[in-house]
Amino acid sequence: MQVLILDDDPDRTARLAQALVGRGLQTVCVDNVAMAEAVVRLGLPGLLVLAERAGGRLSHSVALLGGCRDPAIPAIFLTPRTGHAAAELFDLIPSAVSLVGPGTLPATIAELAVAALNGAPLTPEVIGSGGRVVPVGAPVTGPGRNTAEAAAGMPAAAVASRAERAQALARLPSLRPALTLA
User: pTM surpassing 0.70?
Assistant: First the structure.
């Protein structure tokens, strides 16, 4: 299976490509959004691993283009987003299956890639650069909100409405993504 890696950090790209090749995946590495869009147009890769910004441009267009060509194509974003901003990215990009911090170990990203390609039904979560896992849309706990939302300053109602939306989407098989990693 072919994986497109879009990142303008050559060291991180090389380490990630090596980890993915070690898991039996083929990689195509590019450092700008225009090249990534061209690769998607020429022959759709099975997975997108995208730095949220490359060459000063957002990579969202690459994920949206891939999603238009094949709605089941998963996209893993390398991004520092957390809390509400992370949830917003999942709302904006239907093919986004995982958000990982830019400092996440390449082996961890490779494991997520293999899981995404195998269609593993994983709980949506955000993995920070310190390896800390924060569930996205987790049940509300504590005094009206979970710790991730409390840190982001989101009201408990926003968490509940996001969870309700996820449950509603789960009941619609035609709209449900093939993999729900976050």
Answer: no
